[in-house]
Description:
Elements: H1 4-14, H2 30-45, H3 64-75, H4 82-90, H5 93-105, H6 122-129, H7 131-137, H8 156-167, H9 176-180, H10 184-195, H11 210-216, H12 221-224, H13 243-254, H14 269-280, H15 294-305, H16 324-335, H17 352-364
This protein binds heme C (4 copies).
Amino acid sequence: MKHLALSLALALVLAGCSEEQDSAGAPPDIGAGQTIAQAQCVGCHGLDGRGTAPGIPHMAAQDDRYLVESLQAYKEGKRMHAALRDMTTELGVADIRNVAGFYASLPPLKDTAQMPEKAVSPYDKGKASAGVCARCHGEAGNSTTAGIPSLAGQQPRYFVSAVRAYLDGNRSITGKEMLRELSHVDLESLALYYASQTPARREAPATGDPAAGEPLSARCGGCHGAHGVSHDSATPSLAAQDAQYLVSAIKAYRDRSRRHDAMLTDNTDKEIADLAAFYAVQESAAAERGEITVQELAAKCDRCHGPEVANPTMAIPKIEGQDRDYLIKALRAYHDGKRGSSMMHRMSLPYSEAIIESVASHYAGQPAR
Ligand code: HEC
Ligand code: HEC
Ligand code: HEC
Ligand code: HEC
């Protein structure tokens, strides 16, 4: 499963979006609902259903069953929000149905679409930031400078941890300031972009003997993959890497100037040169296939959230034109397991945050319906 990481990331953004609850009952009394809204909700949700500050959801024209379920979830403590918990404990079943009915009956807000910039996919964002790295790491991360590592095809979790190691001072590099300027989302996006590039094949280096390196690599394959193509997102691929960089990296572990529990090595200089030559000429592969656009991503969400879906068994919220900060907060809550209950939410992935920002921008930029 080579492209596991991205599909998992999508699954995690999605997970928790499918819990069903039944909601039956009498039709709501809209007038009674409006009275409650006026007394208790207006300060935050307005009387037109508009969130009055970033992070507060809009509710106009929202699916009424979804609103009922959310209010029940706050009341039962399944969704956490102190103010709403207090308010909902005071509300009976009929009150909840009525106030939900009131907000659902309002016309969609006209001018919510926030389009400060086009929603950019994490891949494209990474590609844009990679410009400054190309000077040393080469076009699309294929380094042609001896001693400088290729980044093309590299495993994303390793990529992120390598940059962190420079920033934390656990590895040294000149030009650290450039890395410090990257935000967390930039870093995730770069990891996705580079992981998705195809590593170029390399000629045999001048020093070292690939044939002599092959048997020595038997000790490495369990972690770095057969022929140095890693299938673990935290373990770097070695295949098609610059040979001189490999030599200096292995020596750094040997003399303990670079430390990692997994990487204890006592190879001689000749063995290190042979291992590096062996790995340098291996064919590598992209760790990821991340050229996914926001539109492709949203197409997956629209299977449930889109206007064409009229699912009679599931209460699905409308998310077009929703407040961007609120969308980010909601998606993070699913991802972190703070909303919904799937165990998967607790896992962390290399680019979940970048994906969340992109889809949130996309939906916040759509007209409400
Ligand atoms: C103090 C401000 C405040 C007040 C007053 C308030 N809310 Fe909210 N409401 C919020 C915030 C913030 C959220 C988002 C909480 C979260 O992240 O779960 C929210 C979320 C909701 C949601 C979930 C919407 C969704 O898209 O998931 C519903 C439904 C809701 N409120 C209804 C009400 C009702 C009905 C009242 C009045 C009885 C009310 N709220 C009063 C701030 C408020
Ligand atoms: C001035 C040249 C230069 C520039 C520009 C540069 N790097 Fe590097 N980078 C290096 C060198 C040299 C190393 C190897 C350092 C070492 O031996 O640990 C390296 C190593 C790395 C590594 C670790 C690779 C591995 O296999 O462990 C990552 C990740 C990385 N750089 C990311 C970036 C990113 C992202 C950018 C752009 C924001 C960037 N670099 C820009 C020179 C550069
Ligand atoms: C027990 C698992 C394990 C084994 C066995 C192992 N490695 Fe590693 N190797 C790792 C991990 C994990 C890292 C990343 C460590 C870090 O972040 O510094 C790594 C990093 C490296 C790097 C740095 C790559 C880069 O891009 O900077 C090289 C080179 C390397 N290993 C070579 C080898 C060689 C050669 C062998 C066999 C002699 C070997 N490793 C055996 C797990 C292993
Ligand atoms: C299988 C159907 C399904 C798919 C696919 C799906 N969702 Fe959901 N989504 C739901 C349901 C059902 C809920 C309500 C869950 C709840 O009550 O917490 C929900 C809730 C949400 C919410 C919370 C809205 C609010 O007002 O609080 C957001 C945001 C969201 N989904 C975004 C997305 C995004 C982005 C995608 C695509 C990456 C997606 N969903 C894919 C069914 C789905």
